[in-house]
Amino acid sequence: MFCLSTVRQATMTHMSESQKSDVSKREEATLAFWKEHQIFEKSVQKPAPLGEYVFYDGPPFATGLPHYGHILASVVKDAVPRYFTMRGYSVPRVWGWDCHGLPIENIVEKELGFKHKKDILEIGVAKFNELCRSKVFTYADEWKKVIPRIGRWADMEKPYFTMSRDFMESVWWAFKQIYDKGLVYEDYRSMHICPRCETTLSQSEVAEGYKDVKDLAVTAKFKVKNPEKLGLSGDVYVLAWTTTPWTLPGNVALAVGADIRYAAFQLSNPIESTREEGGASNEIIYGPMLICAQERVNDLVIAHKKVHTKTFSGLDLVGLEYEPLFDSYSSDANLKNKENGWKVYAADFVTTEDGTGVVHIAPAFGSDDMALGKKENLPFVQHVGMDGIIRPEVKELAGLSVKPIDDVQSTDVAVIKYLAEKGRLFSKEKYEHSYPHCWRCDTPLINYATSSWFVRIEDQKSALLKNAAPINWSPEHIKEGRWGKWLEGARDWSISRQRFWASVIPIWVCEKCKAKRVFGSAAELEEASGKKRLLLRRHFRPNSSRRVWTKRAHGFTTSTCSPHPSLEKTHSRM
Ligand SMILES: [Zn+2]
Ligand SMILES: [Zn+2]
């Protein structure tokens, strides 16, 4: 029906008639006939004994040119409705434009030479959003040429826009439906964020950006303060391995496996042991006592001689205290739960597959870490801002970006240097692994504790699987394979982005009692705010004395708790 060369020809308007292939000319004649006789319109309006076949089309962005991926999907989106039309259905096909989100924001940021989210706040969200709006249809005309040229039927004259008021209201309506079913919640948890875009991403966005990269892994030495608990004396260190050295200033605990066996051992000092003083003595001198999982000792220590001293169960290690690697937070007298920090705890996620069988715990930078932090009331130390910059409290590393896009290892190198100077470095190595990157700006993502709004998916999984069962897939293996596996592993869906050019999440939150009110339409909001013709935008703030939008992109709030009659309904339910 088409080939890529015909698409290319379609966009090469300067090509003369004589240069076109016969195939191309024949296609153009057919398209002209369809257009002249309104064949598509007639196919939708003709009698449809079987009624309507509903086709929902996820719209493309017009900020990029159509490419092979769009064309492939377009052929399927054309063939299926044609088939059902021929079977006796009417199949309206409404074209749409995706107008919101990071793809457009990133284009504007690039044009303005912006590097950080704060650049946007400086020029103002209203101005930024207007610039985004002006870019939405950059390549719409190219799409309007290519889509009909490949023979796809769609009504591109009356498209829908995700930025239109009607559409955003329909998003609000849908949001309220799922909210009222108890399927929406806000949570503070560890998720992948893009430090450049300064926003959380959904699981599927994260999955899009995995790349094999070389990182630096480090095994750090944590000096035990109470070795007598193990019947040991002198310098004793617990070894813990991490592939994210930049998280070490956020360390507040170490985790061991209760059932794992641990060994204390000493290594020969290679310089001392080879020095034979006048041949009189070849006594080997051993370094300080080191502790790691017994199973891991031989992998960790290859070049040295070693002596085993003792073995312990993980539970024996629980309660050991150690000196923090950095004193930025341990020296803070006001730090909450400080008394529980910098100790060894048992956790069931610890394995001996790699590393040392001891896990460095930084509750602000990992979901296991955060769960253990909550369970054991550990101090919460977030030494990095959402922009990926190390905070001033960490004097030694302040101002460094944890994963700078032009030199992703540089901060890890700085951490390793610091550890070496402090005598806390056991070893370092290059580590190749698959690591997620931002699908829009290519910045390495980081695991970061932050708040986000979620839709409950896990609770709905059995219904989802049941509804997915009758779907026909081609090729068939996708059903149980890529799609089925994705569905089975689906997690609660993070729907909020801490960004600007998007639909606003229609929630008011009372700052004092946290009562919420959700709006399913602009009319409801207008009634509650007493304002007419509201702009449903992030940068809009009603000048009400009682209610303001929060600075958070995902909601707005009432500035006072009482009286707020419009929230009474919500109150009565609490
Ligand atoms: Zn990004
Ligand atoms: Zn209240």
Account of the 3D structure:
The structure is a single chain. The protein contains 20 helices and 19 strands. Residues 1-12, 271-280 and 541-574 have low confidence and may be disordered. Among the domains are: 4-99 and 136-163, no CATH class; 212-436, Alpha-Beta Complex (Isoleucyl-tRNA Synthetase, domain 2), CATH 3.90.740; 461-486, no CATH class. The chain is elongated and about 100 Å long. It is 31% helix and 21% strand. Helix 5 packs across helix 7 (125-135). The strands form five sheets. The protein has a six-stranded mixed beta sheet. The site of one zinc ion has 6 residues, from loops.
Topology diagram in text:
Elements (H helix, E strand, L loop, with lengths): L3 H8 L10 H15 L2 H7 L22 H19 L7 E4 L4 H11 L4 H7 L1 H11 L4 H10 L5 E7 L3 H16 L3 E11 L4 E2 L2 H6 L1 E14 L12 E7 L10 E4 L4 E8 L1 H5 L11 E8 L3 H4 L5 E8 H4 L25 E4 L11 E4 L5 H9 L34 H12 L3 E12 L9 E10 L5 H8 L8 H4 L1 H7 L4 E2 L12 E4 L5 E3 L3 H8 L17 E3 L6 E3 L9 H6 L1
Parallel strand pairs: 1-2, 6-9, 7-11, 16-19
Antiparallel strand pairs: 3-4, 3-14, 5-6, 5-13, 7-12, 8-9, 8-10, 14-15, 16-17, 18-19
The structure holds zinc ion (ZN) (2 copies).
The site of one zinc ion has 7 residues, from loops.
